[in-house]
Design goal:
eight-stranded antiparallel β-sheet, 14 helices
């Protein structure tokens, strides 16, 4: 072998433990050297011959024939040496693997797996994504190629054979329409379209238009034949498979991941609705509808296992007409946007139950919601009214994570700050941005957001999003400053349930405190947003901004990974 190839074998056998239980460390080195020697000609021009041995893994470069040669040589060597393996295989410690995607079912997707193998976690991820894609191709009302769209376009009064999944979904809508006395109905799309058009015109719908919408929604829209698995459209009222379809898909994706790979735990979170299955509990934050930036304190912290959680609310999506905001959630019985409830979170054993209840609670009165919840076994809820009142079911407290202690922030002023005028607590800075859609790649990039003072010293870390800790160094600028003091904390891995967000849109806030909880002096600071994607870009955006006592807003075009960036300094309401 050439010296460079020999160096790489030397590196591998010196730094990496054997993954083959039948051979000891020396055995692996000898056999690996023999196999690589036979590959010398083939390896000359391949990625194996590189200047960075730390990226070298010979096992990944061997083809099937090489593996057979390796196995034969290994067996022969062991028989000659007379040292059969006697030690039991000790599995490596289970780890958490996280993967984030954007623009999945019109929102964001988070997958979390606990496994002893990254390969198994990858299998689980692929299985979950495949199932989400399969079911989306059935239910999507936005794709003309979906089964649902084909059924819609078949015409009226024709029994159409449908898949068991579509039949089940149509049946669920019928059941929940009955259970909620019409508060849930797939024809709510009629009222949603009415208010969307009103927003475009900036003119409220007329009473006549509202009445016509109500009449259209109250009709029976289809009939089902369970014996023949057919669905027949009875009118041409627009329908949308929303409400709890997302929860249905999440549940199926979770089951697919568990079936496909050796994983202990699976969490599938699409836009704030999630299913948790497996041996361990998941830490879940309930977003505060009144303060719902990514780094705002949650309304509640939960520990949940083998359950589904869904949140529905009007604080992230809706229509602005004039000076008033109208919820995207409408009451099919009146064709009016709801307004009494701003958020409802439900924990239930069944995912579709959780999704249906969460939406229904935004439409029904509190008394109706309480009565409806009793019809679903083990369902618990937290409801927030527009006045900020929080209503909890009797068993909600059983899911609260009482072991998580709130971090006490020390507001004492450090000595080096005393001579300077400090940040006014009445003000805050909001950083808004959107991850760009990149064709063929839905993975969200790693991202770090932090603040530096005029001396280029880091004063506050605001956000850090990543998939696996071992790749954090890819955020080169952030890691150079913060890498040594970064420590894993279970709260870094918490899931979040909240009203469905638009895909890729995020807000992070700074309250003027440093990492120790002390208010910093007024002055000019630089907000830094660094993004990194595997086999892709490493982008950094630096925005200086003067933060004193005058409101201001700065817009930034962004870069390859992010756009629609704004920095808003304002007085809190």
């Amino acid at each position: 072998m050439g010296k460079r190839l020999q160096d790489k074998v030397e590196y591998y056998t010196t730094h990496k433990k054997s993954s083959t239980n039948a051979c000891n460390f020396s055995t692996n080195r000898i056999i690996l050297t023999m196999v690589l020697a036979t590959k010398k000609k083939k390896l000359k021009n391949c990625s194996l011959i590189s200047d960075e041995p730390t990226n070298f893994d010979p096992y990944l470069e061997l083809n099937l024939l090489d593996v057979k040669i390796f196995a034969t040589l290994a067996t022969a060597f062991i028989l000659v040496a007379g040292h059969p393996a006697k030690e039991k295989v000790v599995p490596s410690k289970a780890q958490l693997y996280v993967s984030n995607h954007e623009n999945i079912l019109g929102t964001s997707l988070e997958l979390k797996f606990i496994s002893t193998s990254e390969a198994e976690a990858d299998k689980a991820e692929k299985a979950a994504l495949k199932e989400i894609g399969r079911l989306s191709a059935i239910f999507s009302g936005y794709s003309s190629e979906s089964e649902f769209s084909h059924w819609i376009n078949q015409g009226l009064h024709k029994p159409i054979k449908v898949s068991k999944e579509l039949f089940e979904m149509l049946s669920l809508f019928e059941d929940w329409k009955s259970k909620t006395n019409g508060a849930l109905d797939p024809s709510a799309a009629v009222a949603s379209k009415l208010w969307a058009n009103a927003a475009k015109k900036q003119q409220l719908p007329s009473k006549s238009e509202i009445n016509q919408a109500v009449v259209a929604m109250q009709a029976q829209h289809y009939s089902l034949d369970s014996n023949n698995l057919t669905a027949t459209r009875l009118d041409d009222t627009p329908l949308m498979m929303n409400t709890f379809t997302k929860s249905y898909i999440i549940n199926k994706a979770c089951a697919a991941a568990l079936a496909a790979a050796k994983v202990k735990n699976v969490v599938v979170n699409i836009g704030g609705d999630l299913v948790i299955k497996g041996e361990d509990k998941d830490l879940v934050y309930v977003a505060n509808p009144l303060n719902n930036a990514e780094n705002d304190a949650p309304l509640a912290k939960l520990l949940v296992a083998n359950k589904a959680i869904a949140t529905s609310g009007n604080y992230r999506r809706g229509e602005q007409i004039g000076k008033r905001w109208y919820s995207h959630i409408v009451d099919p019985r009146t064709a009016l946007p709801v307004e009494g409830i701003i958020s409802a979170t439900v924990i239930a054993s069944n995912a579709t139950d959780a999704g249906a209840l969460a939406t229904a609670f935004n439409v029904l009165t509190l008394a109706e919601s309480k009565a409806l919840a009793k019809t679903v076994k083990d369902a618990e809820y937290l409801i927030v009214t527009k006045n900020g009142k929080v209503i909890e079911s009797a068993g909600w407290k059983n899911y609260l994570d009482l072991s998580v202690k709130e971090k006490q922030q020390n507001v004492a002023v450090p000595i080096n700050y005393t001579a300077e005028k400090l940040w006014d607590p009445k003000y805050e800075l909001a950083i808004n941005f959107q991850f760009n859609v990149i064709e063929g790649n839905s993975h969200r990039p790693f991202a770090a957001i932090w603040v530096e003072n005029d001396k280029r010293e880091s004063v506050r870390n605001l956000a850090l999003w990543y998939n696996k800790p071992k790749w954090i160094p890819d955020l080169r600028n952030w890691y150079r400053i913060n890498g040594e003091r970064f420590k894993a904390d279970k709260e870094n891995y918490a899931s979040v349930t909240g009203a469905t967000r638009n895909p890729g849109k995020y807000t992070v806030k700074w309250d003027g405190k440093d990492d120790n909880g002390n208010y910093v002096p007024q002055g000019t600071y630089t907000v830094i947003i660094e993004t990194s994607k595997e086999h892709g870009t490493d982008e950094i955006l630096r925005q200086p901004i003067e933060l004193k006592k005058s409101a201001q807003k700065i817009n930034n075009a962004g870069n390859v990974e992010i756009s629609n960036v704004s920095f808003e300094f304002y007085k809190k309401k």
